[in-house]
Amino acid sequence: MKILVLPFGDAACASTHYRVIQYLEMLKADGIECDIAAPGSMPAPAIIADYDAVLVQKKLFSTSQVRMLRSRAKRLVFDIDDATWHPHGRKHSWMTRWRTNRRLKTMVRAADLCVIANNYLGDHLRKLGGQTCLVPMSLNEKDWPEPASNTTDAPIKIGWSGAPANLRYLESLEPMLDKALNVHRTASLAIFCGDRPKFKSDLPYTYMPWQKGAERAAVSTFSIGLLPLPMDAFSQGKSPIKALQYMATGIPVVATPAAGALEIGDSHSGVHFASTHEQWLQLLGDLIENAQYRSSQGHAARNAFVNSYTASQVYAKWVKLVIQQ
């Protein structure tokens, strides 16, 4: 059995890593050969025909390239974890919107199956005529083992982990965070990122510079995880991997109620949602002031991760869909 992956990005791309690359060792253990093409490249038709399945990971190829794929691929699977048809951080011209939606529709209809990270994405792809199946985001449990028990008398850290491009989401919470830290003097703010936030005030925080492979060590210092998102069309389709990292570490999460994030968890799995600064402040206050509640929500978050989002169990479903077992 041989699979060809046409990825969205390289090994450093989070989407490609969590949707494909983290499964490579599992594929090898199952005796399945997996070749990954260079991002954006399209192998020759004869090469494509040599594989039992072709997985297009989020990349929107031209309509002519998709038609060629369909004519040569024995099985064609499209995997998507973002609402790529919406602009992200910039406006699209009418030509870009037209081209993007035309390519998406062609890809979705050509694929034997569309593997979706959440049902928000699935609803859109089904309207385009695609056949969909849900495979959520996951983390390799070997990289995120059972966390050490958090002592209730440890310093309380409200933590945020993310990429520099997403710092503006954290910065939008500055007035609320300033008030929270003034009201709850036992709490502090910690940030793990490749850059520092540009707060307008002198809001105090502990800064941990981003290092590859250091995510678990950084997040494990948090007591509560922050997941602010803009309520725009693109963010509605995100299944935030940061939420899973918080959950795997056994800490409660306070998040924006974007559609994809809502599918990951609820208060029964340690994930709480806030739409206004007042709600953020209330939820954080409840978690800061009640150590037992904070601990129980952390345990609930870890249990939800173990039960639904480990790479080994998600892989078992993913591989059957890709190779049609």
3D structure, described in words:
By secondary structure, the chain is of the alpha/beta class. The protein folds into 2 domains: 2-138 and 310-323, Glycogen Phosphorylase B (Rossmann fold); 156-308, Rossmann fold (3-Layer(aba) Sandwich). Helix content is 41%, strand content 16%. The chain is built from 15 helices and 12 strands. It has helices at residues 14-19, 24-29, 45-48, 63-72, 94-110, 119-127, 167-171, 174-183, 215-219, 233-236, 241-248, 259-264, 277-289, 291-308, 311-323, and strands at residues 2-6, 33-36, 53-57, 76-80, 113-116, 132-134, 156-161, 187-193, 206-209, 224-227, 253-255, 271-273. The protein has a 6-stranded parallel beta sheet, with helices on both faces. Helix 12 links the parallel strand 11 (253-255) and strand 12 (271-273). Helix 4 runs parallel beside helix 5 (94-110), helix 8 (174-183) packs parallel to helix 13 and helix 11 (241-248) crosses helix 14. The longest helix is centred in the C-terminal third of the chain and has 18 residues, at 291-308. The termini are close together.
